[in-house]
Amino acid sequence: xxxxxxxxxxxxxxxxxxxxxxxxxxNTDGISMPRLIISQLKWLDRVVDGKDLTTKIMQLxxxxxxxxxxxxxxxxxxxxxxxxxxxxxxxLSDLLTENTSLTVPILDVLSSLRLDPKLVSEVxxxxxxxxxxxxxxxxxxxxxxxxxxxxxxxALEVISELREQLDLQHCVLPSQLQTSQSRLKSxxxxxxxxxxxxxxxDCVILLFDVIKSAVRYEKTISEAWIKAIESTPSGSEHKIxxxxxxxxxxxxxxxxxxxIERVLRNKIRSGCFQEQLLQSTFYVHYLVxxxxxxxxxxLAQSFLHxxxxxxxxxxxxLYKYAFKFFDTYCQQEVVGALVTHICSGNEAEVDTALxxxxxxxxxxxxxxxxxxxxxxxxxxxLENMSPQQIRKLFYILSTLAFSKQHEASSHIxxxxxxxxxxxxxxxxxxxxxxxxxxxxxxxxxxxxxxxSSLTQGRAALSSEQCTQVTSLLQLVxxxxxxxxxxxxxxxxxxxxxxxxxxxAPKALEWAGQTIFNDFQDAFVVxxxxxxxxxxxxPVKALYGLEEYSSHDGIAINLLPxxxxxxxxxxxxxxxxxxxxxxxxxPLCLAPYFRLLRLCVERQHNGNLEEIDGLLDxxxxxxxxxxxxxxxxxxxxxxSFLCSLIFLxxxxxxxxxxxxxxxxxxxxxxxxxxxxxxxxELQRILEKYxxxxxxxxxxxxxFDLETLDITPHTSTAVSAKIRKQGxxxxxxxxxxxxxxxxSDTLSKEDSSECDPTSSDRSQLEKDFKGKEExxxxxxxNYRAFFRELDIEVxxxxxxxxxxxxxxxxxxxxxATEVVQLQPPELLFLLEDLxxxxxxxxxxxxxxxxxxxxxKGSRNIGFSHLHQRSAQEIAHSIVRLLTPMCNxxxxxxxxxxxxxxxxxxxVDGPGVKGQEYHIMSSCYQRxxxxxxxxxxxxxxxxxxxxxxxxxxxxxxxxxLKQREPDQPLEELLSQSFHYLQNFRHSxxxxxxxxxxxxxxxxxxxxxxxxxxxxxxxxxxARQFLCRVWPRGEKENSNIPxxxxxxxxxxxxxxxxxxxxxxxxxxxxxxxELINSPKDASSSTFPTLTRHTFVIFFRVMMAELExxxxxxxxxxxxxxQQIHEEKLLYWNMAVRDFSILINLIKVFDSRPVLHVCxxxxxxxxxxxxxxxxxxxxxxxxxxxxxxxxxxxxxxxxTRLLHHLCGHSKIHQDTKLTKHVPLLKKTLELLVCRVKAxxxxxxxxxxxxxxxxxxxxxxxxxxxxxxxxxxxADESGDxxxxxxxxxxxxxxxxxxxxxxxxxxxxxxxxDDDSD
Length: 1311
Hints:
Helix content: 55-70%
Main location: nucleus
Protein name: FA complementation group D2
Strand content: under 5%
Subcellular location: Nucleus
Number of strands: 6
Largest sheet: 2 strands, antiparallel
Strand order of the largest sheet: 1-3
Structural class: mainly alpha
Number of helices: 55
Distance between the termini: 94 Å
Shape: flat
Family: Belongs to the Fanconi anemia protein FANCD2 family.
Region (Disordered): 179-198, 717-769, 1261-1311
């Protein structure tokens, strides 16, 4: 049809006009005629030939100036009709390839057109390829187009490619903007940069706004982005953009929060997200992340609730960087969140939050001072805090108050003084102790040594400040002198302050003079001035290391002081000599000496010559050996001597703490002698404690945790003891379970890494037969002994020490060789292993109920907890060389012992006492090694070098040192070194620790397969070994440890099914055919007593193994079907062997295991095996029939077990019956479904079975008509079914299924 004339005129006029407009510029009135004409085209009422119009406009766009091209393109959606969208899209996509400067308007228009998905995909791919060359200003529009063009099918692919193509340089701000960023942070985030820098910030913010919008409203995009990050394998491939995106999606999409948390946790555990990546993310994108600050704090709070140290560390960093990079409001929110953690009552959270606050105070003191009022509010929650947490809190508050003389902090100082004075004057004893801790901590900040500090405004300690400090300390002293406990705590806290080495010289000098004079007046007397008085025992100077004449020398006045204190308590009269002196409690002796020693040590750079007389001076005591007088003593005399021994032991322990690092051989020899005295006194103390189990010792640790300590005792506690005063009545009482002297410490197995009741009870049996009187464990009195410092273990380096004995003229009269003997070695190793357990292998964090006191796990480790786990690990690594020496010496001892006794380590020539001490030393060494290498801190990057050093020590024991060995080689060599000790293992405990130690090394290896087989072989050797006769006769292998070792063997062996078949098919029959008290010859650890442990582990591992086997599919190859069918045949055969053992071993625990794991095995059979039988029945008929026939007999026995449980009315057994019956019903239905699938439904029939017990006897509990079929009928039914299956090819299965139904139905009828 011919076009109207006016239409041609319009097109022609428009064309000529546009051609002219290409050369037209804005006139003097500021009017752009081309843009006016373009805007009029948007309002056309009717377009006759839209295709022609589109063609002309596209021609004009191709030749128009740039500024007009932009207008033409952006107007296209309003000019062209819907039918022309495809053509316009094609033209614009071509233009996009020719002119990249038009990318933004073209993509903006394409988003408004209805285009073919294929074309959109092509354009998106084109744009993706140009991401590396586009300007930052264009990036938001490009990303918007890409995200809006994503579909459900290609979302993951597009997002993954976008992550790769969106190079880091497009997300990191330009260099000039980074410079500005640093300036912004230093100026409180106030923008003072130029327009260009502000423009760059705006572009980045706009880019993330586009992404936020997309992930908020498009679930597909957010999920795809998370999956793309999750699927990135290595940490090196992750970018700061990944972490930023996870935080943004976490804040915008509440449905995916749990998913994102799980992804983050996995990435943190695997090491993909580390501190450097998080720091860079905040540094680059802090403006973007500031908007999602609440979500970041919520995520950090969630991470701090974790039990994984790496997760907790990441949460801590989130708090720290949020405070560092965000504005004042966000900083206030961070402090508020941390205060909430501190007041939560969870001990782990409190520790972590306090550490974060402490770091914030150190890094950004001025900003923290603005939030001091929030931190000060924590003072209301001191009651539930541990002493170490109280120290941290007061340290934080004191730093905020006194670190800088500033007007703003004067109110904090006033509040601190007010709170501390109020606590010190409190009549509630606990608050007084809190006040002592706070006052000493605050004094330490006020009197800090600032001589080397570069902090502005911090000069050396002025006289006025020194006066304030001394006044505060004198106030503490005066408020605490009425209570020996409070005084001792003050001395300990002051000593810890001096040990930190931060006290200014002026304050240290004042303290030194005061402490030295007071200690000498209170506790030291002349050797010749033997006290006289009405003492219950004759006073003698004992345990002196030098020969004193009658006119010189000093002694510690212990017995008279203790007697005076007891006399004062009883209201008696003091002697005239005592009345002239100020009464000093002997409780303060050890704490005061610690304070004196540390003060002298700091003043003289570690030299203790000024007080070395205290190392060898005697102590005024009495004869302590009980002898025959023990039974004739009164209770009061008995308690007096026990207290005297406790105080003497604590004095010697502090003396060893003080002088252990002295270098001279003379001093080392004396320290070793004091160790010997400690061991001797412990042996004597055990004899006294065995006769007075309700005795409460004098306190030795004065932290708040010991105030409410609950006695752990197995004996009745008398009412008199319960009603004692504040100090005595709250102390820990003893347990008479076992012994811990130089003779019997080796049997102290309950103090190992995981103590159990079975260990303790078994150890009681050991020593009741040998040393009846020594039935007390000093381990239960740990709270009443002074803590050994970590430096004491440098004594482990000692070999032979030559000690000179001088005459009166200081000439060498004789020489004596002193060596660390096994009892002293055991004493040190026991304490070291407890410290490693407490610091490096912390127990699982438990939330403590509000207003409830914490447990006693940390009692006796106060000084230890003032150091970090990393410091302790460093100290243990430095001790590895001497510990290896001792380990090898003990190994050689047992090797020689075995050789002398023809391979029997406990032969007739073995000395029992020496053997047990050496065995315990062996165990403690392995326990310490295990605790060190199991430390989770080795996975932190900053501790890699420490792990490397520790492994080098073990490797160098095998061969000469080679520099720069790879970690994998060090692990392999260390594994080989430790494995060599397997031949000399003296006890089952040691064997388990060796296995655990090797497993810890195995976990750190990247290629553990070969060593895994070695662990399985070693575990089998230990299971097949005859352990020492003393342990075997008393069944001394603890059940829980045997359970662990057997589980390790089955988990690491190549074939679990073969291993189970060997134990159940070989070891158990040997046990059945052996005498009553004998064991299996193949597995000597398998006895009638331990059978239930073997049975439980085998059933659990069998169920775990088959549950992990993937169900077969019809698509699998024939070979895979045959392999899986063979595997299930072996599993069912093992199950059959184990189930039939209940006919011989029918004890209640065995039947319980059978009911529990029998049901789980049947469930696994239903889920994993039945799908395999569905498509294997036709091709492998005979194999399937054999499998089901065997399994039928097993399930029938399970049915009998259900009847047995009901007859005996055992609730522990019957509670498993309903679930087991339900599972058996499901099995019948599932077998029927398999028959239907294979066209054999007619082979399925039903019958009834009689209820029988385990012995096969009929249970008379049902009507006669319900018992129409007996066992012979069932057998005949099976034969009929089998002949039918021969004809049809697949019928015999039915009889198996219906018999399961029969069992279930008859059981139901009998109910």
